[in-house]
Amino acid sequence: MLLGGALLALACSSSKAEPILPYPVGQAMVFGTPRGGVMMPVDASCDSDVCVAVRERCGGEAYAEVIIDAPGELLDVMCYPGGLTIRDIGLGPFDTIGEESDTVFVFDAHDDGADMLGEVIITGDDDVLYGAGAAVSVLGEGLRVDGERVVVRGMTIRGDVTIDRNDAKLSLVQINGDLNINGNGVTLSESIVHGEIHLVGSGTVLSRNLLEGTAELSASDLRCHQNQRFDDVDADRYIDDAELGGEVDCR
């Protein structure tokens, strides 16, 4: 499984370079098809179920990641609003993150070790942690989500991830520790979890993830699509074909 990301672009003005959003507003990436992620425009001329769902849930000025199952039924929509404040994590150490709401934190694409040291706690609502891919954007320890509607994309978390609030959305992440979902309406897609998974909240969506040592999962209103077990026998954080197992049974 490839965990991708996007680079932060810079828009030049006559005075100084100003950061722009790292995702394309007005478009959606659809996950769940055999071809993987498929990008499509979302505008008034599109009347498909995907376009209608994106406009209803995210509005017109947003980017979205849409999760569908094998029959093409909509599982969830992850919204990346266009009107957020942008904070560039940059190359140096960053002291705080996630204390303000309505902010997108953009991680760099340099493979230079952990971008954040210590446990990262997100307390703001409607925040986005936007990484440049799990190979380069790294949280050195754990992540705790204590804000509503937080989105985490394209990064590795070397410790545990604990989600205590509702409607958190995670995609294209690698979690080296445990995943504890206590909030409701949480989605995990196109990701890898090396630790144990604890599902307390209801309405969890799990789509096309690789889950270590997990044969079955159960929770209230749990929806699953093509999640696969693996066993990292040599503990090298790399999943060989021989370490892949069957589809995870969800109840």
What does this protein look like?
The chain has 251 residues and is mainly β. It has two domains: 23-81, no CATH class; 85-250, no CATH class. It contains one helix and 28 strands. It has an eight-stranded parallel β-sheet with strand order 7-8-10-13-16-19-22-25, with no helix packed on it. It has a seven-stranded mixed β-sheet with strand order 11-14-17-20-23-26-27, with no helix packed on it. Strand 1 (10-12) and strand 2 form a beta hairpin. It is globular. The two termini are 25 Å apart. Mean pLDDT is 89; it is low at 1-16.
Write a compact overview of the structure shown.
Helix content is 4%, strand content 39%. With 251 residues, it is mainly β.
Main traits of this protein?
251 residues, disordered N terminus
Question: What is the end-to-end distance?
Answer: 25 Å
Estimated radius of gyration: 17 Å
Proportion of residues in extended strands: 35-45%
* Secondary-structure class: mainly beta
Query: How many distinct helices?
Result: 1
Q: What is the N-to-C order of secondary-structure elements (H for helix, E for strand)?
A: EEEEHEEEEEEEEEEEEEEEEEEEEEEEE
Mean pLDDT: 89
Strand tally, please? 28
Shape: globular
Helix percentage range = under 10%
Low-confidence stretches: 1-16
* Largest beta sheet: strand ordering: 7-8-10-13-16-19-22-25
Largest sheet properties: 8 strands, parallel
Number of domains: 2
How do the strands and helices of this protein lay out in sequence?
Blueprint: E1 10-12, E2 17-19, E3 27-33, E4 36-41, H1 49-58, E5 62-68, E6 74-81, E7 85-88, E8 103-106, E9 120-122, E10 128-130, E11 138-139, E12 143-145, E13 151-153, E14 156-157, E15 161-163, E16 169-171, E17 174-175, E18 179-181, E19 187-189, E20 192-193, E21 197-199, E22 205-207, E23 210-212, E24 216-217, E25 223-225, E26 228-230, E27 244-247, E28 249-250
Parallel strand pairs: 3-5, 7-8, 8-10, 9-12, 10-13, 11-14, 12-15, 13-16, 14-17, 15-18, 16-19, 17-20, 18-21, 19-22, 20-23, 22-25, 23-26, 24-28
Antiparallel strand pairs: 1-2, 3-4, 5-6, 26-27
